[in-house]
Amino acid sequence: MKLWAIVENGQPLQCLERPDPQPKGSEVVVAVTHCGVCHSDLHFWKGEYDLGGGNILRLADRGVQLPRAPGHEVLGTVVAFGPEAEGVAVGDRRVVFPWLGCGTCEVCVSGNENLCLKPCAVGVVRDGGFGSHVVVPHPKYLVDFGHVDPAVAATLACSGITTYSAIKKLQPLDPKLPILLVGAGGVGFAAIRMLQAMGHTNIIVVDLSLEKRAAAIAAGASHAIDGNGDNVVQAVQAAAGGPLMAAMDFVNIPSTAKMALECLGKNGKLVLIGVGGGELPLSLAGMIFRPRQIIGSATGSLQDLIDVIALAKSGKLQPVPVTCVPKDQAFDAMMRLKAGTVTGRIVLEG
Ligand SMILES: [Zn+2]
Ligand SMILES: [Zn+2]
Fold first, then answer.
1. Cα separation, 313 vs 149, whole angstroms
2. Which of 12, 251, 326, 349 has the fewest CB atoms within 10 Å, i.e. is most exposed?
3. How many A from CA of 45 to the centre of ligand 2?
4. How far apart are CA 13 and CA 134, in angstroms?
5. CA distance 216 to 23
6. Are the C-beta atoms of residues 182 and 338 closer than 8 Å to each other?
7. Is 259 found in the same domain as 325?
8. What's the 56 CA to ligand 2 centre distance in angstroms?
9. Span from the CA of 290 to the centroid of ligand 2 (angstroms)
10. Is the pLDDT confidence value at 62 over 80?
């Protein structure tokens, strides 16, 4: 098998040859046909996150070892499985649930492996979809996507469930009330589609990029506001007709989180999704005189992936725009994402 792997942080990916995986126990080997390229892959490539206050979270400190193939939006064909794998057949085409945990703790057993304290995610701790093959520990992590376009279905494993699980955290919310969406990149754009699939009709987007604002309006956002301005909060509240009850920050840097929090009225909720990094000064008394909730959200659960794929199969979830490129252009695709010139998702094929 081949791996397009991070060998050294911040350096071009290298193509490595490895023996084909031999599945044991309940393991399933999936030959990857599609893999989305996510901003998290870029953070992984850099190898660190800005925690704010001068603190850096290094992936090496989280037990991530190189070389490793990134890629967690994985879809492919089952080519082999171990003697204890049931309900799976060679030739099955499936989306892989990537957000694995230890598999045995209370959190994992309750179905929230994405929140396990010992993460074992595909494309982070295990080799991911930038390789020719992915090993999945159990067939339950494979979801049948029916007739959904495979390039789009692959993206549901991260951008799909990340948006779905974030929107659930804003509920209950009257679907006619405005929702602020900060950052209309790959995951933000997917959020527009997911909000629409979940019945929300009043979506206010803030983005720095003219192209992304135009794409958001074309996708049905009610307003798209330039985040470069001095009066972004006023512009958002004018578009909304007053303070908002719901906001999602897909960038999540100090300026965007502060702006989104300022847009909210009493009892409004801000869900933080991006990993831009930094820290947020918070007026503590202000949180009493204008009570609001700030909620962190990390990907989603296996059940979320099953629910999102059911939404896509039903036709309610409109696809995000995808651009397919050959897998040997993986590094070029990452650099395009880094440059901020991608609308929707780049998906590696083959
Ligand atoms: Zn992702
Ligand atoms: Zn666990």
1. 10
2. 326
3. 25
4. 17
5. 43
6. no
7. no
8. 24
9. 37
10. no
What is the number of the ligand closest to the CA of 128? 1
- CATH value at residue 189: 3.40.50.720
Residue 101 pLDDT grade (very low, low, confident, very high; cuts 50, 70, 90)? very high
Q: Which ligand is nearest to the CA of 160?
A: 1
DSSP 8-state class, residue 128: -
Predicted local distance difference test score (pLDDT) of residue 117: 95
Residues written for the chain: 350
273 and 333 housed in the same domain: no
The residues whose Cβ lies within 5 A of ligand 1, an ion, are 38, 40, 158
How confident is the model at residue 75, as a pLDDT?
Answer: 98
Ligand 2 geometric centre to CA of 217 (Å) = 41
Ligand 2 centre distance from Cα of residue 122 (Å): 14
Q: Considering the domain boundaries, does residue 163 fall inside one?
A: no
Same domain, 27 and 152: yes
On whether residue 25 sits in a domain, the answer given is yes
Mean pLDDT of the chain: 95
Environment of ion ligand 2 (residues, CB < 5 A): 101-102, 105, 108, 116
Transcribe 61-94 into DSSP letters: GGT--SSB----EEEEEEEEE-TT--S--TT-EE
121 shares its domain with 193: no
Q: 101 alpha carbon to ligand 1 midpoint, in Å? A: 16
Query: Do residues 52 and 277 touch, judged by C-beta distance below 8 A?
Result: yes
Considering the domain architecture, whether residues 30 and 154 belong to the same structural domain is answered as yes
User: What pLDDT does 185 receive?
Assistant: 86
Query: Per-residue pLDDT tens for 300-346?
Result: 999 999 999 999 999 999 999 999 999 999 999 999 999 988 878 99
DSSP annotation of 170 reads T
pLDDT confidence band for 201 (50 / 70 / 90): very high
Same domain (yes/no): 83, 127: yes
Q: Are residues 179 and 104 in the same domain?
A: no
Weakest mean pLDDT among 50-59, 69-78, 265-274: 50-59
The pLDDT value given to residue 342: 82
Q: Which domain holds residue 232?
A: 170-296
d(CA 292, CA 308): 28
264 domain residue, yes or no? yes
Indicate if 227 and 309 belong to the same structural domain: no
